[in-house]
Amino acid sequence: MGPLQVRRADFLMALAYATDLATGHSRDFALRSCVLGMRIADVAGVDLQMRRSIWHQALLRYIGCNADSHLLAAAWGDEIALRKELARTDMGNKAELGAAIGRAITRKFPNLSTDELAAAIASGLAEAPQINIPILSGHCEVAQRIAERIGLPDDIRENLGQLYERWDGKGMPRGLSGEAVKFPVRVVTLAQDAIALHEADGQEIMKATIANRAGGGYEAPLAELFLAHADQLMVGLDQPVDRAAILALEPQPHAVITEEGCNEAFLAIADMIDMRMPFTFGHSRAVASLTEAACKTVGLPPADTRAAKWAALTHDIGELAVPVATWMRSTPLTERETDAAHLHPYHGERALSPLGGEEGKAVAALVLRHHERLDGSGYHRYAKGNDLSPAARILAAAEAFQTAREARPYRNAMTDVTAAAKVRAGVREGKLCAEAVEAVLTAAGQPARRVSAERLGGLTPREIEVLRLIAAGSTAKEAARQLDIAPKTADNHIQSLYSKIGVKTRAGAALFALERGLVN
Ligand SMILES: [Fe+2]
Q: 370: CA distance to ligand 1 center in Å?
């Protein structure tokens, strides 16, 4: 296994997908705005440095916007619905902004009388600046810190600190105006508004709205330049965008990160996810450290341990699709909310799909399975044990244990002892893997129990490696050679493995590996 080299752009696209979900934007919104921003850069004839800044600003504009979502939800209810509306609202226009906030309060309190609702809207509007400005300042700061942690330079971080600033000084949080608002910020704000307005109202109304806001939200010459080329600039932007298109648009030199950089990027994503609500703070890091330690305890191959750790850091990235107001409620979810919540592993896999290569695929496959159970009682695909690799079993056990010992709005945190009893009950019920659970509990400092059940999936780590090589096309002899098994004993070794798993041929073993999720 050579040193890992990954395009940083892959991580930025994963972040972009997650923030599109969290902000109620449509599929590939950030990616489409990146394409549009770069087209505007072409007609504006800007230099390479400016192109690089626009490319990053479009993908990353909202990476800080997950912070303090619970405060936003406490004030305005369903924050994803509100953000969806704000995407096409002229935030400098008090009447438009007031109407959007009024509709949010109406959604939040569906049962108030007309008078009560009017009073709630009046007090909401009066308090809006005190509520919104600190939250938006927080978004800017978090965006800048995440950008620093994924290795982005000063100028890009500075732009991310100006998320909602406007040409006319009516933006937030600092009310910057004119040239003090950086050019990439102005371009991307215009590009993203154009896409949101186009989706909501069509091309002609979008153009009229942009023209109307020229000199207000947007610098007039920039709006005029956009409008002069709008029809050609918008071509194809109502379609999803290929990952390859974004990779190709990245100005040279293309940023590449190593394994260490990946670790930092995954940690940054974990923190971004967990900052959304107070009771999930540190959840992803805790699941990751239990998962990594448990994988080492049972002796999984290093590549599996690494994929499991990275999957643990990002397992709940798909939760961003569900409004915080839903997660924060202490009453049971409705059926529709449960359906939406149960889809978060699906969204997680989709978010991580830009991560190319074997490593990326392995991480996405584990995220997809993190709520599955051996008996098929998990979600959302109702996968069973034969689809759950050792790493998937450990991640599921670590997630279950860690969640049990954290508080949720509808229950208190369990003690470690109670949480351990809960996951061991999961083993007795046939849902969780015995060895995975014991390895996680050992990692958590709980007294270990002897596991009488068979090893993970019935296989030793060495046997898993043999099967993986065979599934990848190696002959039994080649697999033995790669694993330093003496040639003389190779045949016996492989034959005894084949009989253990009940297959006769290399192809049978390859299929077995596939079925058991050993090949991601
Ligand atoms: Fe989850």
A: 7
| Per-residue pLDDT, 55 | 97
Number of Cβ atoms within 10 Å of the Cβ of 294: 31
3-class DSSP assignment, residue 256: strand
- What distance in angstroms lies between residue 452's CA and the mean position of ligand 1's atoms? 29
Q: What is the pLDDT of residue 136?
A: 77
Dihedral sign for Cα 425, 299, 444, 328, please: negative
CA distances from 321 to 20, 150, 433 (A): 9, 23, 29
C-alpha of residue 177 to centroid of ligand 1, in Å: 42
Band (358; pLDDT cuts 50, 70, 90): confident
Give the whole-angstrom CA distance, residue 415 versus residue 352: 33
Distance 349 CA to ligand 1 centre (A): 12
Question: How many CB atoms are located within 10 Å of the residue 1 CB?
Answer: 9
What radius of gyration, in Å, describes the C-alpha atoms of the chain? 25
Q: What amino acid is encoded at 383 in this protein?
A: A
> How many Å apart are CA 265 and CA 152, to the nearest integer?
11
What is the Å distance from ligand 1's center to 48 Cα?
41
Q: Is 191 helix (H, G, I), strand (E, B) or coil?
A: helix
For residues 269 and 255, is the Cβ–Cβ distance under 8 A? Answer: no
d(CA 372, CA 315): 12
Distance 60 CA to ligand 1 centre (A): 24
Which among 178, 164, 152, 168 is positioned nearest to 53, based on CA atoms? Answer: 152
How far is the centre of ligand 1, averaged over its atoms, from the C-alpha of 319 (Å)? Answer: 7
Which residues are near ligand 1, the ion (C-beta closer than 5 Å)? 316
Which among 365, 338, 360 has a CA at the least distance from the CA of 349?
365
**Of the candidates 316, 309, 323, which has an alpha carbon nearest to the alpha carbon of residue 274?**
316
Q: What backbone phi and psi angles, to 5 degrees, belong to 202?
A: 90, 170
Distance from Cα 11 to the centre of ligand 1, integer Å = 20
Question: pLDDT digits over 229-278, tens only?
Answer: 999 999 999 888 989 999 999 999 999 999 999 998 898 888 888 888 87
Report how far ligand 1's centroid is from the alpha carbon of 376 (Å): 16
Mean pLDDT for the chain?
Answer: 88
| Identity of residue 336 | R
pTM, entire model: 0.80
Alpha carbons 447 and 438: distance in angstroms, whole number: 9
- The amino acid occupying position 489 is T
Ligand 1 centre from 342 Cα, in Å? Answer: 8
Helices 69-76 & 114-149, crossing angle to 10 degrees?
170
CB 307 within 8 Å of CB 363: yes
Cβ(189)–Cβ(179) under 8 Å?
no
Mean pLDDT, range 398-407, rounded to an integer: 96
The pLDDT score that the predictor gives to residue 514 is 58
Residue 419: is its pLDDT beyond 50?
yes
Question: Can you say whether the dihedral through the CA atoms of 102, 104, 105, 106 is positive or negative?
Answer: positive
Q: Is 213 helix (H, G, I), strand (E, B) or coil?
A: helix
For residues 247 and 6, the answer to whether their CB atoms sit within 8 Å is no
- 432 three-class SS: coil
